[in-house]
Specification:
432 residues, Cytochrome Bc1 Complex, Chain A, domain 1, 6-stranded mixed β-sheet, 5-stranded mixed β-sheet, 19% strand
Length: 432
C-alpha cells in the first residue's frame, strides 16, 4: 500500500502505520493547529481471552497497574500527569484493553513513559492486590445493584452462555479472589505482549518524535501474544429476575455479524433504522404512537467473528409483553426493502456520528488503534463513508432475513414479576 498523501494543512486522511522490530505497531495522526495530544496504547486482548478460572483478571490487572509502576506510587502516577494539565485513564473490553493519556502538546514524552511503565513494569504488590480485590468486589456488587447494568449482563450470558463472551468483564469475587501477584504478573505478560500492542497518537504530534518515543518506551516489550480465542456461538436463551422496581428493564438480542463480515455496515444501518434515533421505527411506533416506553433504543455490538442486534427498553411491567411483540414486528418488517428516504437518513446519521467522533483526538487515536488490530491498517474515513453509501435496501432486507432465519434470541428482563413473560413472548415469536 502506498503512503497516504498529505493534505494542504500537512495532515493525512489515513495515518501511517509503522512496526517496531519486536512487533509493536505505531500509528501517528498529526493534526495541524492542535494544542493537545492524545495517546492510546491498546493491547488487542481482553476478557474473552480468559478461561473461567481467570474470569475478570484482565480488568483486575488494569486496576492493579495503576497502584504503582516504574518506581512511581499510585499517587505519583496521577499527580505527575495532572501537574502537566493531562488526564490518564484505561478501559477493559472483551477484545482489547486500552490505556489513554490526554495532554498538552508537550506532554507526549511523559505520557508515553508513564503508560510504558504501567504496561511493562507494574509493582504488583500483594497488599495492594488484596485491597484492589475489595474495590473490584464493590464494583461487581454495584453492577448487580444497578438494573440497567445487570440486565445487559444477563442478556450477554443468555446470548453466549458457557463461553467467555457470556461472562461479565468484571468476573466474579471467586475468580478474582484466586489471583496472586505472581499469576496476575504472568497474565500481564501474555495479555500485553508486544505483538498485540498498538501505540497510537493523534493531535499535536510529530511523527519522528512519536517513533523515537515508541522505540524508547516500547521497543523492549516482549512476550508471546495469547492465541486467538475459539469462535463464539450465539446460543440464545432467557434470563429473568423478578425485582421490585418502578420499571421493567428489557434487553432483546438477535444473532448478527462480526466486524469482518461484508455486511458490517449493513448491520449498523439496520440498528439505526430500527431504533437509532427519534425518527427510528421503534421510537415512533413504541413510544410516540403507543406510549409503551420512555426509553427505547436499538444498537449493534460486534466482535471479530460474530455480533448481536440488540434492543433495550425501560417500560411499565404491564406494557412489556406488547413491547416485545411490537419489537419483533418492527424487526420482521425490515425483511422488506426500506424506502430510499429512510435509508438515506440512516446513512447520514451514521456518517455524521463517525465524522463527529473524529473531532476528538482521543477518539481518533483509539479508532486508529482498533482498526490496526482488526485490519492491519488505519482506514480512510472517505472509503468507510463510501462503504456506508454502498448499502442498498436489498442488502438490508437480506441481512434481516439472515438474522431471523436463525430463529434464535437472547432475552433478559429485570423488574416486576408481571413483566417477565415478555421474555418468552419475544423468544417464541422469533422462533416462529
Amino acid at each position: 500500500m502506498s503512503a497516504p498523501s498529505p493534505k494542504p494543512d500537512g495532515s493525512r486522511a489515513t495515518p501511517r502505520v509503522h512496526t517496531l522490530a519486536n512487533g509493536v505497531r505505531v500509528v501517528c495522526d498529526p493534526l495541524s493547529g492542535w494544542q493537545t495530544v492524545a495517546l492510546s496504547v491498546v493491547a488487542g486482548r481482553g476478557a474473552r481471552f480468559e478461561d473461567e478460572g481467570r474470569s475478570g483478571w484482565s480488568h483486575l490487572l488494569e486496576h492493579m497497574v495503576f497502584k504503582g509502576a516504574g518506581g512511581r506510587s499510585a499517587r505519583d502516577i496521577v499527580e505527575v500527569i495532572e501537574a502537566g494539565g493531562g488526564h490518564i485513564n484505561a478501559a477493559t473490553g472483551y477484545e482489547r484493553t486500552s490505556f489513554q493519556v490526554r495532554a498538552l502538546k508537550d506532554g507526549l514524552d511523559l505520557g508515553s513513559a508513564i503508560v510504558a511503565d504501567l504496561v511493562q513494569r507494574p509493582a504488583m504488590d500483594a497488599a495492594d492486590l488484596a485491597r484492589e480485590k475489595q474495590v473490584v468486589g464493590q464494583e461487581i456488587a454495584e453492577a448487580a445493584d444497578t438494573p440497567d447494568d445487570l440486565v445487559f449482563e444477563l442478556a450477554q450470558e443468555a446470548a453466549f452462555g458457557g463461553q467467555p463472551l457470556g461472562r461479565p468483564i468484571l468476573g466474579t469475587t471467586t475468580s478474582i479472589g484466586a489471583a496472586t501477584p505472581q499469576t496476575l504478573g504472568a497474565w500481564r505478560q501474555a495479555l500485553y505482549a508486544a505483538p498485540s500492542l498498538v501505540v497510537s497518537a493523534a493531535g499535536a504530534v510529530d511523527e519522528d518524535e512519536l517513533l523515537r518515543l515508541a522505540e524508547r518506551d516500547f521497543g523492549g516489550a516482549d512476550g508471546a501474544a495469547l492465541p486467538p480465542p475459539v469462535d463464539a456461538a450465539f446460543v440464545g436463551g432467557v434470563r429473568t429476575v423478578a425485582k421490585r422496581l418502578e420499571q421493567a428493564n428489557v434487553v432483546l438480542l438477535l444473532p448478527a455479524v462480526g466486524v469482518h463480515d461484508p455486511d458490517y455496515f449493513t448491520l449498523r444501518l439496520l440498528a439505526e433504522i430500527l431504533g437509532g434515533g427519534m425518527a427510528s421505527r421503534l421510537f415512533q411506533e413504541a413510544r410516540e404512537k403507543r406510549g409503551l416506553a420512555y426509553a427505547i433504543d436499538a444498537y449493534s455490538e460486534t466482535y471479530a467473528e460474530t455480533g448481536v442486534l440488540g434492543v433495550f427498553a425501560g417500560c411499565a411491567a404491564e406494557d412489556a409483553v406488547e413491547l416485545a411483540e411490537v419489537t419483533v414486528g418492527e424487526i420482521a418488517n425490515l425483511a422488506e426493502p426500506v424506502p430510499a428516504a429512510e435509508l438515506a437518513r440512516a446513512k447520514a446519521q451514521l456518517k455524521g456520528s463517525m465524522f463527529m467522533g473524529r473531532e476528538s483526538a482521543l477518539a481518533r487515536a483509539e479508532q486508529a488503534a482498533g482498526q490496526v488490530l482488526l485490519f492491519g491498517e488505519a482506514l480512510d474515513p472517505e472509503q468507510v463513508a463510501a462503504e456506508v453509501d454502498a448499502v442498498t435496501p436489498q442488502r438490508l432486507a437480506s441481512l434481516t432475513a439472515r438474522i431471523l432465519d436463525q430463529k434464535k434470541a437472547a432475552v433478559a428482563v429485570l423488574g416486576p414479576k408481571a413483566a417477565l413473560k415478555a421474555a418468552e413472548t419475544f423468544q417464541r415469536a422469533v422462533a416462529g
